[in-house]
Amino acid sequence: MSEGRWAAVRRWLAWIMLAGMLALAGCKVETFWSPDGKSIAYLADSRLRLYDVGAKQSKRLDTGPGQVISATWSPDGSRIAFYAATLGKEAGVSLRVIDPASGKVATLVLDLWPLPKEPPKELEGLSPAEALRDAQEDALGTFEYGATVAWSPDGKLLAYVGASASGGGIFLLTYPAQGIKSLAGPGPQIAPAWSPDGKRLAYLRPSSSGAEVAQPSQKASESAPEPDSVWLYDLGAGKSQKVCEVPGGSLAAGTRLQWSKDSRQIGLIAGASEESAIGCLVEARAGAAARAVTSKVTAMAAWSPGLEGVVYVGQPDDKGRAPVLYRAPGGAPKVLGRLDLPAEEKSGQAPQESEAMPFSLPEFSPDGGKVALRVGEKANLRVAVLLVK
User: Fold this and answer.
1) In which region does residue 64 sit, left (phi positive, over 0), alpha (psi from -120 to 50) or beta (all else)?
2) Which of 344, 379, 383 has its CA nearest to residue 360?
3) Average of pLDDT values for 345-359?
4) Residue 3, pLDDT above cutoff 60
5) Cα separations in angstroms, 233 against 236, 257, 284, 331, 369
6) What is the residue-averaged pLDDT of the chain?
7) Chain centroid to CA 114: how far?
8) Are 291 and 275 in contact (CB under 8 A)?
9) How many alpha carbons lie under 13 Å from residue 287 in its C-beta half-sphere?
10) Cβ atoms of residues 45 and 66 within 8 Å
């Protein structure tokens, strides 16, 4: 690989790490295994598709107007809940559910996140329509970071992210839609994740952003942004408690909180720097300390269902092929497979901030035996399924 091309690849990798709280498109979970491991729902060009693992075939699901943001399967595999965002005059973000077998779609919550309906006063050389779309896309980008939706293990509650007085807040929807309540505790709140026993909901309180540089007369505590922190909501007690701060200050872009099968630990991927990320474990109790147990992984990583190890997309080799690796705490990385970079990434052109990444975050199957990634874009898009050795 030429020096110029390698430099472009390095810029591409640094761009992944630098995303942090910016929530750039593509560096997020975009493949969602069905509970039985036979199907994968995934995002393709902001649409929802269904991949049959056995037949190795895909089909598009008709989810109605708008682009799909995130999705999750119901515990029995009969439904997929997802966010849908519509831009233009009828702009809005809604929570919907689809039955993949019948194709029936139902809207559960309307206008859960505000999108501008009028163009900004300062058009900056744009037409009113262009300025309005830019403003709507900016607001939608803010929503996308941490806007996961989580179905409780018994299938009776949906935890979703919506607008609140503190910016973003988590709400609990009784399914079918019978009532909504806001999560107790300080905000903003994002990235909900249910414990397997259904008694608690883990979520992230993101760091303060846009902090001004402190003046000499200001105290450090008045200017320093708070780091990301992990919180627990107890469903029975109806209250939240802080678990810990995220090592390094922030969760890696697009990743999520993951529970151990016994509901005692939470796994997370911390964005330690532009060059690396770390896999951390923390006990699911107030005041616990997060432990860094798997270092030298990339930000494109996820914990296995039992938190036995981390899978991640590594740095491309001199042929432009990116390895998918598995690493157990204290162990050496094992290569599960290698994926070709799309042609535009091999050309020496680093992606722009508005462009999607050529890979999605890897996602383990429910039994931990396989890993799926969405690879490529548009006509070259496919789902890659790799065995975990």
Assistant:
1) left
2) 383
3) 48
4) no
5) 9, 14, 11, 33, 30
6) 83
7) 20
8) no
9) 0
10) no
* Token pair recorded at residue 351: 């992606």
Measured between alpha carbons, how far is 364 from 373 in angstroms, rounded to an integer? 9
Residue-wise DSSP of 123-159: -TT--HHHHHHHHHHHHHHHHHTT---EE-TTSSEEE
Q: How far apart are CA 31 and CA 50, in angstroms?
A: 10
Residue type, 2: S
Partners of 277 in beta bridges: 297
Q: Which band of pLDDT confidence, cut at 50, 70 and 90, is reported for residue 147?
A: confident
Measured from the Cβ of residue 278, the count of other Cβ atoms closer than 10 Å reads 24
Specify the higher pLDDT residue, 250 or 305: 305
Q: Computed from CA positions of residues 17, 314, 267, 292, in that sequence, does the dihedral angle turn out positive or negative?
A: negative
Distances (CA, A) of 208 to 203, 212, 223: 16, 11, 10
Global pTM reads 0.84
Other C-beta atoms closer than 10 Å to the C-beta of 340 total 16
Q: Are 247 and 257 in contact (CB under 8 A)?
A: no
Question: CA distances (Å), 104 to each of 11, 27, 63, 96, 211, in order?
Answer: 43, 29, 8, 11, 45
Helix (H, G, I), strand (E, B) or coil at 27: coil
Phi, psi for residue 74 in degrees, rounded to 5? -70, 155
β-pair partners for 43: 48
- Cα–Cα distance between 357 and 227 in angstroms, integer? 26
Using an 8 Å Cβ cutoff, are 339 and 317 in contact?
Answer: no
Determine phi and psi for 141, rounding to 5 degrees. -60, -40
Are residues 173 and 162 in contact, defined by beta-carbon separation less than 8 angstroms? no
CA 46, 41, 282: angle at the middle one, nearest 5?
A: 100
Query: How many helices (H) does the chain have, and how many strands (E)?
Result: 4, 27
All structural domains of the chain: 3-208+227-387 (2.120.10.30)
17: tokens are 């790490």
Do 363 and 303 meet the contact criterion of CB atoms below 8 Å apart? no
C-alpha span between 110 and 330 (Å, rounded): 47
Contacting residues for 62 by C-beta, under 8 A, at least 6 apart: 103, 105
